[in-house]
Specification:
The complex is a heterodimer of chains A (307) and B (532). With 307 residues, chain A is mainly alpha-helical. Helices cover 79% and strands 0% of the residues of chain A. In chain A, helix 8 runs antiparallel to helix 10 and helix 10 runs antiparallel to helix 12. The chains are: A mainly alpha (307), B alpha+beta (532).
Chain lengths: 307, 532
Amino acid sequence: MIRYISARLLATVPVVFGVTIAVFSMLYLIPGDPVKMMLSEFQTSPEQIARMRAQLHLNDPFFVQYGRFVWNGLHGNLGTSIRDDRPVTQEIFEVLPQTVQLAVAALALSSLLGMALGILAALRQNSWVDIGAMTLATLGISMPSFWLGLILILIFSLRLELLPAAGGGDLPHLIMPAVALGLGAAAIIARLTRSSMLDILRTEFVTTARAKGLTGRTVVLRHALLNALIPTITIFGLQFGTLLTGTVFIETVFGRPGLGRLAIQAILNKDFPLVQGSVLIFALGYVVVNLLVDIVYAVVDPRIRYQ
Amino acid sequence: MGVARRAGVGAGIVLLAVALAAVGAVTAAPSGTMLTVGLDQEPPTLDPEASPSAVTFQIIPDVTESLLYQGLDGKIQPWLASAYKVSPDGKSFTFTLRADAKFTDGTPVNAEAVKWNFDRVVNPNYKAGGSLSALSGYAGSTVVDDHTVRIDFKAPYAPFLSYAAGGTLALVSPKATQTQGSDVNLKPVGSGQYVVSEYVPKDHITLTRNADYDRKPPWSDHQGPAYVNTIVWKFIPEAGTRVTTVESGETQMISGLSLPAATLSHLATERTLRIDRNPYPGAPRIWVLNVRMAPTNDLKVRQAIEYGINRAAIADSVFKGLGTTACAPLTQQTLKTPSLCNAYPYDPKKAAQLLDEDGWKMGPNNIRQKDGKPLTLTINSINYGSGNLPEIELLQGQLLALGIDARIKSQARPPWYEDNYHCATNGPVLFLRSTDPDGLFALFDSANIGGNFNWACYSNPEVDKLLQTGRETYDPAKRSAIYRQIEKILVDQAISVPLVDEYSVWIVRSNVTGTKYNFSGYPILTDVKIGK
């Protein structure tokens, strides 16, 4: 197991390397002088522009700059935001917990709801329960999260006055964003769980388990579900990426502080250090979650770690 | 099957938990001691002297104070300065400061503090915002005595009194500012009726009442601290969400900026809401035409555009309730010029005739052409994150009806600025909030080509001279006459297409009373009371 985990960890190194190169190169790929862009709203003198260039070490060769970016990044220094004049890491870590909270809540909601609906639909295949669950799932996949968010606001904030529409922080502020963000993923997980459950329920070992006289509950939970989980776990990793992207919209619709909104504002302001920092954190989050998914695979299915 | 039931119960539990949590989370009723205001965006900084953005000045009048105050009627009144005197040559301003004014860190608002603030603005190491142009031609400050300070300029500078009453030259505590570093962007220390007690980035700013405040500011109905204990400024970028919060009572007041056209008339019918509307001073929402780039370098094309744009349609649709049809490069609030309102009545036939005379004949696909070249132009437009702006699309449609192929260059703010500095498009649509007609100096003086904001790239020695004379003239009647003359020239030469004189619009719950607005149209909330 340790060998397996070490191998997976090693495999992330080139990915992280690629991510840092891509993030760092952004500064060079965007047309125009980055310093002039960053200071565009202020009346600046050529001296101020020169000072900013020096401050950002933009006169050094590309790889020297890249090396400095990585070295500083490893020491928790991602530079200073141009527009706010504050350390990028500070700005990111102020809002990151809110985004993690939202993504985890949405993931928890989508997996619980999705798996429950999927199992239910598989066990009652072709019944009205199955049709109902799958219709719900189709609806969930078809609805864009920001639209669902606005509809939830209309119903729960305006009509019923049950939940606050805007802001972050506590549980009431988390419910609607998590539902809006998680429902699409729940629908995908429901459909996937249903089809893998159906496959597994038809396999010989399930028939054998039943023939041994095990109860329906044991057969489903211990034998079928565990095996049906593997494709579902794969989708967790992929869905987490989708959820992270979704936070960009959801945080805007619900006026929630978070990394998505921070990144969007940074992009619109061409605040390069902040864009680099937030994109880097997004990418690293994605890498870490997929690493965790790989490890969970190995726990759930021993065959994987022996390959 | 037992397990199916169990799975069903599982799904049910998740939904139930959500529903229960929802029921348990009924939003708190608005309390009499807290006012929550919804804003469309977060300010780039709260430091008044560093900010290039109007958003800052919507929040800051409750926190920081200026030497003078300019109310909605435009009159200049004493504020931190109890009196002022202009030297006979018009180059020096001597302010007598109140003896009882203190910053909220306990240090006095004295002559030294004023000098420190103004010197800070012009310090080349400091990234000043709009304050720098407000101190245009600043020669220095002199501390005459503890409560008297003299501000000197290189040339007579009549607009300074209005600028000294504006938010950009509001004073921050020298002591606190020097020790707090970059935190001045989040929690500037002023001398006003509120203190910034909390700043949660991307979420909200909390202002707490300064209980020690014992003066009576010029707009106020009372002496002493503000009525409401806490003001929360909440950033809610999505217009639909923002409207919902004020309808449900989650906020008690929201900014009407960028609300979709139909929304205001719908809100006006709600008995629980009130709409506060005040005209913005300065330049209207205006399309400045780049006179250096074809085809807008051609007077006839520019005049054809003037006749061919239906401004009333733009004001009545996209800006419904948010503004009125504009007439001139300054809003009618800033300078009344009724004669200019009829300079270019909407007349598409006249526009077509001008283009025909100029050799632009209708070609294939309803696009005019001359010498085989199509009549195309580019409008520079800011993308705030939700694509093309509706007013620009409407403009594009109207130009197409004239046979002009207008392309929209929709881009983020920084490259938008860069293109404007380089005169790289046929001009941007912009607005300029200036409390003095001197705003025209920024927009049309040739010294500001390549800077802020002569983006028509217009150079006319006669206008330059008049703009300078306007700055040096103190007599109000003479000043108005000068700016009317400038506007007449600009309109005759069709340097810009004034579209909409905008209102500062705030949607307020009916139980909230005492909202006041300064000359800039920004809210002042120190007299607010929240009823039942």
